[in-house]
Automatic annotation (TrEMBL):
Belongs to the Cob(I)alamin adenosyltransferase family. It is found in: Cytoplasm. GO terms for molecular function: ATP binding; corrinoid adenosyltransferase activity. This is Corrinoid adenosyltransferase. The lineage of its organism: Bacteria, Pseudomonadati, Pseudomonadota, Alphaproteobacteria, Rhodobacterales. Its main location: cytoplasm. Its EC number is 2.5.1.17. GO terms for cellular component: cytoplasm. PANTHER family: CORRINOID ADENOSYLTRANSFERASE (PTHR12213), CORRINOID ADENOSYLTRANSFERASE MMAB (PTHR12213:SF0). Pathway: Cofactor biosynthesis; adenosylcobalamin biosynthesis; adenosylcobalamin from cob(II)yrinate a,c-diamide: step 2/7.
Length: 190
């Protein structure tokens, strides 16, 4: 259980922070950048929820919870020692990826196939979901970069990849099932 009774600790005043295993690293470390961007994404999802109907809001709330799971996963580096840990770390699992895929399939079933890329925008909710999509892609890039340097849960990377797809399809749904999508016209302003 997390207890936060004092918000400031002064322990990071010198530019470092503690990971989930209590190891101290620079605040600009790749691992901190990855889970910090997941946190930023979570805040963007909170903004999107302000525009959402009840069903979409519930899905976005599930995603926010998953993003906290993802942050907990990324802030705890030692995957090979997980089984030995006094408190087993929280890891993203394949079922979370599978849920996103199933939701994407349901949302996408009634959408017309795209014949062009779409410009981010349309309705306010769609615009917010496109921002979420781009932040999810950045979080994924940072997680992949981290994974090139040290162990990262592969399901966490898959989750971020699928999540950006989820936001894309959800934005199309929010655009009246794609009716308000703004299509890219290559070279239109030459």
């Amino acid at each position: 259980m997390v207890v936060l009774n004092k918000i400031y600790t002064r322990t990071g005043d010198a530019g470092d922070t503690a990971l989930g295993n209590n190891e101290r690293v620079a605040k600009y470390a790749p691992r901190v950048a990855a889970y910090g961007t997941a946190d930023e994404l979570n805040a963007q999802v909170g903004v999107a929820r302000l525009q959402a109907d009840a069903e979409t809001d519930a899905a976005l709330m599930r995603i926010q919870n998953d993003l906290f799971d993802l942050g907990a996963d990324l802030c705890r580096p030692e995957m090979e020692k997980d089984a030995e840990a006094e408190y087993p770390p929280l890891r993203v699992i394949q079922a979370q990826v599978d849920r996103l895929e199933a939701e994407i399939d349901v949302m996408n079933a009634d959408l017309a196939p795209l014949r062009s890329f779409i410009l981010p925008g349309g309705t306010p909710l769609a615009a917010h979901l496109h921002v979420c999509r781009t932040v999810a892609r950045r979080a994924e890039r940072l997680a992949v970069e981290l994974a090139a340097q040290e162990p990262v849960n592969p399901a966490a990377v898959k989750y971020l990849n699928r999540l950006s797809d989820w936001f894309f399809v959800a934005a199309r749904v929010a655009n009246g099932g794609g009716q308000k999508d703004v299509l890219w016209v290559p070279g239109a302003n030459r």
